[in-house]
Amino acid sequence: MTRRDYYEILDVDRKASDQEIKSAYRKMALKYHPDRNPGNRDAEEHFKEAAEAYAVLADPDKRAAYDRFGHAGVGAGGGPGFDPTIFADFGDILGGLGDLFGFGDVFGGRRRAGPHRGADLRYDIEIPFAESASGAETTIQVPREETCETCKGTGAAAGHGPETCRQCGGHGQLRYQQGFFTVARTCPACRGAGRVISKPCTTCRGAGRVPKERKLTVKIPAGIASGQRLRLYGEGEHGVAGGPPGDLYVVVHVAEDPTFKRDGDDLHCDIQVPFPTMVLGGAIAVPTLQGQEQLEVPAGTEVDTVFRVRGKGMPNVGGRGRGDLFVTVKTAIPKKLTRDQRRLVEELGRAFQPEPAEPGGREGDPEKPFFERVKDIFG
Fold first, then answer.
1. Could you read off the pLDDT of 295-328 as tens digits, one per residue?
2. Which of 17, 76, 158, 257 is most buried, by CB atoms within 10 Å?
3. Are 203 and 150 in contact (CB under 8 A)?
4. pLDDT tens figures, 94-148
5. Backbone angles phi, psi at 20, to 5 degrees
């Protein structure tokens, strides 16, 4: 019977690297594994075929013989030395994905029954905009799992300790031979721990940890932005069986400010400026994080002109200076005018009209300069 080329089975080039071959096998194994295709004979055959191809191409000597002589160079079924229990090491081939996909038991990867690092925790807080600018300290209450003080994390009652599981001999798994390959399942007696507790601790009921709340003081640095997080090492959940604790990540959310809009370390704000000041120029008060400051507006400034005030933005969270403040000037047009206001506007309108031309076509000189007349109208 004609046998398929091993490179074709794994869908790789004949010059493929060891890593490419390993990745291709991982992809095939995940796709055709019998646990993912129960009762599918075709999937099972593809799975065996991929395993045979990998057993040859992953071995430099066998691959060299196969490249030179084909299937005859490695013999039937992968040639001498082909190990059907290659699947026992599949957890390593998966590159750590075995447990994620639930294949750690299937391929015989041994679970560690020893110490485990505690889980990382996340805590979200909201702070006012002013605190993000100046920095602050806040106190939080963090619920977490901590080591049981009664049993010191063993899960066993005083005078008793964990015992080696008799069913699996402390391995945490039971192995079965299923035709072509070896399958390992989590031991039901110890649930993969390899140890059992005959008399559990009455405080934690054998878990070794108990839920508690811990009060922590969090220092918020000046300049922190919404969405940034602070890492508190060792303040996550306590580890299992003496393992190290996880970390706590405090995610900061900054409330919006009615005056300032933030863009990186820069701040933006809009300021309403009286129309006479836009025309004639003058000083206006602008808000900053440190209080109001004076800004000179030149005569003839147009609406939506942006002024830059250096060094008046947010402090950099890393301590590298401050951003700038960008002030956009606006002016409001009143919809209703008093009689006096209307008279002044009409006078202003006449002041904007050009002077009548003198005989001969020359434009007459005004009695006063334009801005002087505007100042007279506005008093």
1. 999 998 999 999 999 999 999 998 889 999 999 9
2. 257
3. yes
4. 443 343 333 444 444 444 456 788 899 999 999 999 999 999 999 999 999 999 9
5. -65, -40
Cα gap 58→56, rounded to integer Å: 6
> Is it the case that residue 226 has pLDDT exceeding 90?
yes
Pick from 117, 104, 80, 89: nearest CA to 22: 89
Q: Can you tell me the distance from the alpha carbon of 231 to that of 213, in angstroms, rounded to the nearest whole number?
A: 18
**Is residue 332 over pLDDT 50?**
yes
Structure tokens at 296: 């000179």
Choose among 261, 374, 306, 325: nearest CA to 297: 306
Is 286 part of any domain? yes
Residue with tokens 């000041």: 277
* Nearest-angstrom CA–CA distance, 9 and 126: 55
Structure token digits, residue 61: 């000597």
Picking from 208, 178, 54, the residue whose alpha carbon sits closest to that of residue 107 is: 178
Per the CB < 8 A criterion, the answer to whether 279 and 300 are in contact is: yes
Range of the domain at 292: 261-330
The H or E element containing residue 121 is strand 121-127
Q: Are 285 and 292 in contact (CB under 8 A)?
A: yes
Q: Does residue 303 fall inside a structural domain?
A: yes
Q: Given a cut of 80, is residue 245 above it in pLDDT?
A: yes
Cα–Cα distances (Å) from 160 to 156, 163, 194, 198, in that order, read 6, 9, 17, 8
Do residues 220 and 163 touch, judged by C-beta distance below 8 A? no
Whether 13 is in a domain gets the answer: yes
CATH classification at residue 277: 2.60.260.20
Angstrom distance (rounded) from CA 328 to CA 280:
18
- Residue 315, φ and ψ in degrees, nearest 5: -70, 145
